[in-house]
Amino acid sequence: MISIKRDLLTWQGVCLIHAILEMNKDNPEQFQPNRLLVAIAKMYMDPEKNEASAYRTIKNSFAKYYTMGQFSRAFAFHGNLYKAYQQIPPQIANEDKAYFLYFTFVWK
Hints:
Blueprint: H1 4-7, H2 11-25, H3 33-45, H4 47-57, H5 64-77, H6 81-86, H7 94-105
């Protein structure tokens, strides 16, 4: 989970904590686009530490592939290309694999 003491000192941490509070207020059975953004933000802050929490956040979401592509990009951004490649689910179509590889190696 996110360390509140350390992350509150940054603007990004404050925004993320407010987004998490809003996300937890709403009905979890309805689609919440901020769930995906919260998970992506967690991964960009520290992908090694927040990976499990981010995957729990996107659980049962229909836009999971897009978010997982962003997770791959977050690992690549932090220099861990092997872990970025591991974010690709096994046994997916070539088009979907190309999508993940795009997010892994093209991070403008």
